[in-house]
Amino acid sequence: MKKFTVSKAASKGIVMGKAFVAVQEKLEADTRIIKDSEKEIEILKFQKAVKDAVEEIKVLAKDNEIFAAHLDVAEDAVLSDSVEGKINGENKNAQLALEESVAEIVTMFESLDDEYLRERAADIKDVGKRMMCKLKGVKSNPFEGIDEEVIVIAEDLAPSDTANMDFKFIKGFITEAGGVTSHVAIMARSMEIPAFVGVVDFRKNVTNEDYIILDALGNEIIVNPDDETKEEYTKKAEEYKAMKAELESMNGLPATTLDGRTVELFANVGSLTDVENAVTRGAEGIGLFRSEFLYMENTKFPTEQEQFDTYKKAIETIKHPMIIRTLDIGGDKELSYYEFDKEENPFLGWRAIRISLDLKDVFKTQLRAILRASAYGDIRIMYPMIISVEEFRAANEILQECKAELRKDNIPFNDSIQTGIMIETPAGVMCAEDLAKEVDFFSIGTNDLTQYMLAVDRGNQKISKMYNSFHPAVLRAINRVIEAGHKYGKMVGMCGEFASDEKALPVLLGMGLDEFSMAATEIASSRYKVRNLKYEDCKELAKNVCSKSTIAEIKELLD
After folding, report:
1. Which one of 165, 177, 452, 467 is separated from 498 by 20 to 30 angstroms, measured CA to CA?
2. How much is the pLDDT for 458?
3. 311, 324 in Cβ contact below 8 A?
4. What is this structure's pTM?
5. How far apart are alpha carbons 65 and 274 in whole angstroms?
6. Any idea which architecture 36-136 has in CATH?
7. Which tens digit of pLDDT belongs to each residue from 98-137?
8. How many other CB atoms are there within 10 angstroms of residue 158's CB atom?
9. What CATH homologous superfamily does 2-24+143-226 map to?
10. Is residue 465 scored above 90 in pLDDT?
11. Which of 413, 347, 328 minimizes the C-alpha distance to 379?
12. What are the sequence ranges of the domains in the chain?
């Protein structure tokens, strides 16, 4: 019997079953450089591969939003233009041109600061893989023929892989690649299949003859357990199933502590599918609508009408408050249709509100779309990366211009629409009281706030262990922002990953946080926790936490 500890589960639960170690074929491109006379033939080969791939994806996309997104990628002119440009201009054969074009687009997405956006690279890879199979005449499905209950272990799993699975036999997933926002993680959570992702080099420790316990509650993998261990985990699985049933029964109940303090549990979303899932999971609103998806997944700046249609559909679906973050892109987040200057330090560069204030026409297009959608529900506007009162005022001045234009054209909107800001920099923290006098609300973005407060690039593997939101400086900064907001009667929420951390929740509750926004799948467990806490106890805990000098002391207190 061997035990492996995993840092974090992508989808919670406890399952047991035989290991199925997937052998996935590597699709390496032909590296041959072609003659000018072959260019037309190679382009025709590629166009046929695209057509065949599109036809396959269309069938899958009818009942699946993930494949609907794949269809957009497959039909996107950006990919086709790049491939055909390499064939015509660089004499690359179709396979090599496709491989290089996909790699370039993937690199652009993987360089993004936002993990949720970063994982979109997997969609590009998967579409590219499907097209490469067509070019090479390969049909590869390592999951065909699974006819017993198994835990799938793979390097990574793309949507096209999972589309071929018979889920009555799939009990769990373990992948070596991917993050908690990867396709397999999102799919596992939506189907309530326990999963670990990013378990580096795990396949070398297991074979198809092994039996696995996947404990995505205690974050352990047990290979070839004895009978006593199997019995122990069978009991744990039954207890978890009973607890889940209790959580689901609370879906319509408020998040109110035992002594009467009520907070709001909102969801972070990036698409209309996410909004629908948030409704199912009992979200009381949307605390962060990542509008950059409308820009990232486009071949041009989205029009006012395109944005309006999305925002209108979203607010009509959620039927509760929805906070739309204006375009948060730039520096490390590139667009295929807009050329950004090379920056030495993109994290401190031209991004977020700085771009919006400079590209005024782009900003006004978005603000007009949001305003028009506000006629259909409680939509609020949140400006990202604000570091000064001047920036907030400048953004609102442009908003006023948009309001005047809509009034002139007799287009309805909510004239008293709320405007707030993300607090994600030390400047925002230090100027919180000044900002609180002007804004309607704060939302604390702990992902960037932690990075900026600690001067730690969370993408740098050498120092990533230093990235920790339980650092005293980060916790004191959060407390300071909440106090500043409440001093002037403003709502303070949080939309970073920290909002759903089970150890952080009582501390944030004790600090007085009003709204917790998180992945929709975390809402039920957060509601359960809030309803079993006392606010007065949490206040004392928060006070003690903020007095500690080290992460170790804070962790000891919380454990």
Report:
1. 177
2. 67
3. yes
4. 0.72
5. 10
6. Orthogonal Bundle (1.10)
7. 999 998 888 877 766 666 666 677 788 888 888 988 888 8
8. 23
9. Phosphohistidine domain (3.50.30.10)
10. no
11. 413
12. 2-24+143-226, 36-136, 258-558
